[in-house]
Amino acid sequence: MNDSASPLLPGRYRHYKGKDYLVLGIARHSENEEELVVYRQDYGDKGLWVRPLAMFRETVTIAGSNEPRFRYIGPD
Q1: pLDDT per residue over 20-46, tens digit each?
Q2: Taking Cα atoms as reference points, which of 61, 52, 11 lies closest to residue 69?
Q3: Which segments constitute the DUF1653 domain (predicted)?
């Protein structure tokens, strides 16, 4: 689910390195209104993080293949 035209669904996402994260929603930066994804690690200290939406939806090249940085797994 990396189509930039579709809304980002809340739920479980798997990072291309293999760990799972729970997307809580989208926030806006107070100064420039940039959209930020709010998400929580589903491992370790369960830290709360934000990342620009555009970066969250980026693809990365792994062994010559383009893969989404975060892949939607399903609802939490």
Answers
A1: 999 999 999 999 999 999 999 999 999
A2: 61
A3: 11-71
The closest of 75, 68, 72, 55 to 17, measured between CA atoms, is: 68
Whether the model clears a pTM of 0.70, i.e. scores above it, the answer is yes
As assigned by CATH, the class of the 11-74 domain is mainly beta
> Which of the two residues, 45 and 7, has the higher pLDDT score?
45
Q: Count CB atoms within 10 A of the CB of residue 67.
A: 13
Query: Which residue pairs from 18-23 have beta carbons closer than 8 angstroms and sit at least 24 positions apart in sequence?
Result: 19/43, 20/73, 21/49, 21/70, 22/76
Q: Which two tokens stand for residue 45?
A: 């200290």
Mean pLDDT over 58-62 rounds to 95
